């Protein structure tokens, strides 16, 4: 395969995670592709919550929340801690928290590709690139 910068390509290849790690990461990102699961995780940024309270917070059935939590738990995104008969869910670790917080920060300052023209025009800074030339 021909390359322009063979040294850089070699460096990238050497630092590439294993196939299994890439597949695991892809699975986690796939989980984050469903809005209700993301809403559950955002709710958990404020601290541990039980299924009933999560369901009330995001206006979803307890069954749907339980199913989503089962998937998130299987991929080590959330953890469960039991106190008697009540299970409280938390964000699994600081990496997951950081990922969510960075994602929220990112969407808070970017213009969405699927935004309408009026929304894009409103968000543009006339002193920089013309709105019709923006690339995200």
TrEMBL record:
<dbReference type="InterPro" id="IPR051011">
    <property type="entry name" value="Metal_resp_trans_reg"/>
</dbReference>
<dbReference type="InterPro" id="IPR011991">
    <property type="entry name" value="ArsR-like_HTH"/>
</dbReference>
<dbReference type="Pfam" id="PF01022">
    <property type="entry name" value="HTH_5"/>
</dbReference>
<keyword id="KW-0804">Transcription</keyword>
<dbReference type="InterPro" id="IPR036388">
    <property type="entry name" value="WH-like_DNA-bd_sf"/>
</dbReference>
<dbReference type="GO" id="GO:0003677">
    <property type="term" value="F:DNA binding"/>
</dbReference>
<protein>
    <submittedName>
        <fullName>Metalloregulator ArsR/SmtB family transcription factor</fullName>
    </submittedName>
</protein>
<dbReference type="InterPro" id="IPR001845">
    <property type="entry name" value="HTH_ArsR_DNA-bd_dom"/>
</dbReference>
<dbReference type="GO" id="GO:0003700">
    <property type="term" value="F:DNA-binding transcription factor activity"/>
</dbReference>
<keyword id="KW-0805">Transcription regulation</keyword>
<feature type="domain" description="HTH arsR-type">
    <location>
        <begin position="17"/>
        <end position="111"/>
    </location>
</feature>
<keyword id="KW-0238">DNA-binding</keyword>
<dbReference type="InterPro" id="IPR036390">
    <property type="entry name" value="WH_DNA-bd_sf"/>
</dbReference>
């Amino acid at each position: 395969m021909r390359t322009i910068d063979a040294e850089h390509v070699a460096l990238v290849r050497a630092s590439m995670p294993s196939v299994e790690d890439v597949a695991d990461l892809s699975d986690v990102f796939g989980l984050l592709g469903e809005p209700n699961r993301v809403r559950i995780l955002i709710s958990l940024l404020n601290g541990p919550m039980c299924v009933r309270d999560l369901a009330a917070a995001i206006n979803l059935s307890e069954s749907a929340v339980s199913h989503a939590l089962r998937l998130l738990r299987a991929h080590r995104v959330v953890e469960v801690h039991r106190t008697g008969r009540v299970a409280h869910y938390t964000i699994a670790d600081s990496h997951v928290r950081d990922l969510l917080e960075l994602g929220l920060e990112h969407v808070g300052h970017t213009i969405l590709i699927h935004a309408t023209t009026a929304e894009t025009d409103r968000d543009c800074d006339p002193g920089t690139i013309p709105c019709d030339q923006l690339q995200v």
